[in-house]
């Protein structure tokens, strides 16, 4: 059974985290498999939008700490963390011991994926599973969805960028409360807080996500990717720097055949009025 199952239809790639027996935990192999799917989709022009959901009743329980909670005598906790989540096989021992990214490598690959992404959150999303959902551009939640940072209950701190994505979504006070209590947030509260855009009945979840995905897939793909690239950069730049980002992207978009056809059709339609 593949850790991530995929299907492609009309430009929409559906990815299912596929360890339902264990709640779709973010083991190293599953996370690497998911990132490999995105890497292939990045250069595949047949893929215009990616929808991610979980198999079974959960989106993802987050990290699988089974092998880490009781390390063997000859293994350090740091080594086990790297073995499970760091994907540092190509680094020397010294580099592994002082590594500052860990699963941040996969996190960056998800965040920097330049085609639209939609998380169809079918059930509980905890810890790293919550973080993965927040890395998507859009989140549609089943009424059965639940969100929890969870880390504080394990004496741990946020990972996979959740300390930033959650803070930006809900503001500092709400983020602090969610991190320090680790309480569960139901689907309706998640919508009210701004964690998800829509809440639907479980049987409508995938259809709702696919409807949005189909609308996005119908847009000019170059413009869509440049818009997303522009917005991703906007988080980390000054206003003047953002102007410098926007203009070359606009020039590139205007040079494309899609823009020429669309603007010609728009002008022709306006003249007929």
Description:
This protein is an alpha/beta fold and 273 residues long. The chain folds into two domains: 4-217, 2-enoyl-CoA Hydratase, Chain A, domain 1 (Alpha-Beta Complex); 221-272. The protein has twelve helices and nine strands. The chain has helices at residues 28-42, 77-86, 93-97, 104-111, 128-134, 162-170, 172-181, 187-193, 205-217, 221-234, 239-254, 257-272, and strands at 4-9, 12-17, 49-54, 117-121, 125-126, 138-142, 146-148, 185-186, 198-200. The strands form two sheets. A six-stranded mixed β-sheet has the order 1-2-3-4-6-9, with helices on both faces. It has a three-stranded mixed β-sheet with strand order 5-7-8. α1 (28-42) links the parallel β2 and β3 (49-54). α6 crosses α7 and α10 (221-234) runs antiparallel to α11 (239-254). It is globular and about 65 Å long. The mean pLDDT is 87.
């Amino acid at each position: 059974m593949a850790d991530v199952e995929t299907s492609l239809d009309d430009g929409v790639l559906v990815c299912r985290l596929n360890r339902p027996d264990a709640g779709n935990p973010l083991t190293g192999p599953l996370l690497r498999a998911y990132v490999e799917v995105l890497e292939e989709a990045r250069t595949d022009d047949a893929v215009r939008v990616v929808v991610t959901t979980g198999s079974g009743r959960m989106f993802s329980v987050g990290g699988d700490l089974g092998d880490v909670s009781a390390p063997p005598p000859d293994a350090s906790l740091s080594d086990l963390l790297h073995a499970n989540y760091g994907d540092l096989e190509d680094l020397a021992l010294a580099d592994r011991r002082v590594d500052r990214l860990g699963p941040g490598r996969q996190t960056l690959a998800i965040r920097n994926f330049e085609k639209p992404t939609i998380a169809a959150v079918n059930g509980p999303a905890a810890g790293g599973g919550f973080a993965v959902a927040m890395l998507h551009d859009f989140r549609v939640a089943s009424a059965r969805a639940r969100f929890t940072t969870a880390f504080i209950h394990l004496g741990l701190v946020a990972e996979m960028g959740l300390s930033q994505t959650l803070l930006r979504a809900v503001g500092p006070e709400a983020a602090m409360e969610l991190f320090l209590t680790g309480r569960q947030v139901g689907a309706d509260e998640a919508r009210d807080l701004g964690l998800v855009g829509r809440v639907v009945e479980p049987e409508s979840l995938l259809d709702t996500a696919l409807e949005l995905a189909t609308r996005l897939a119908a847009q000019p793909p170059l413009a869509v990717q440049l818009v997303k690239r522009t917005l991703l950069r906007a988080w980390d730049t000054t206003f003047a720097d953002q102007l410098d980002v926007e203009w070359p992207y606009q020039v590139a978009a205007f040079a494309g055949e899609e823009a020429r056809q669309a603007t010609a059709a728009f002008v022709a339609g306006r003249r007929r009025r």
